[in-house]
Design a protein that fits this description.
Dna Ligase, domain 1; globular; seven-stranded antiparallel sheet; alpha+beta; 310 residues; 18 strands
Amino acid sequence: MKKVLVLVDRLSLSKKKLTRFLNQNSKGIYKADLRSFEDLLFEIKTGKVKITVKNKDLKNYDLVFVRRAGKYVRFMGAISKYLDYHKVSFIDPAFREIGMSMDKASSAVRLAIKKVVMPDSYFCFRPAVIKNKDKIIKDLGLPIIAKAINSQRNTNIFILRNEEDFTKLFKKSKKTFIFQKFIDIDKEFRLLVMGGKVVVLEQKSVRNYKKIKVEYLDPNEPSVFLKLDSVCEIINKMAIKSTKVLNLDIAGVDIAIEKGTNINYLIEVNKGPGIIPNSKTSPELKAFSDYINLITERTSILCDFRLTTS
């Protein structure tokens, strides 16, 4: 018997009646399960992504019917990517055209599927965090890094050292979080990628983990820019690959080297990287200007070509 998942924004009497009717009229072809987005749990590991609903992997369904996504619609980009990867049909394929959300959870799913090395992560919607807390702690270990999925530029990052910190986190913030394995960082870099090339390399400041909220040890420390060949080619390739996976022309890619192992981890991809508006202290402004000039020139050449061949 085929398995059908009816995925909804919230469980209601009308949706329960719909699912019941589907099962009564399935002629024994399928069995439909009604579940809400809040039942989803994303387990995100490099090359091994799993999205489950009530402990059942979405890849084990033959069809996923999204009856109504509501406020969760922006996550359908990542979910549809996962279903496509496992060749699971879903209704409606138009969800592919919504465009991929750039929240941290959706980005992590896409990057992990493409085997970009990143910290092991878990994501579920806020109401389900406490229910999944023990599983998250058991798998990731303590401490755990919690990042608000819609924050950029290293804001709203917290370190959880024990179970009680999960409760403290929810008292401090009303945001939705992705939980990641703690990486003991030796060095961290920001690579500014434009048009598939690394154009600026910055050594990032040391992070301060003494409080529950993670900030830089010296938030006023001036930026330190390095020569582009100051990091190994592996780091450059990782940065470029991550922007291609996320289909970004311009991005700030944060990559860290772990103490002891020297493993390179992708920490974050920022679609709107901060650019210091001072050409005397930062090479970012000129790099950005040069890239815009290049794109404009290409556009002009293309327009001229179309005019001469029309």
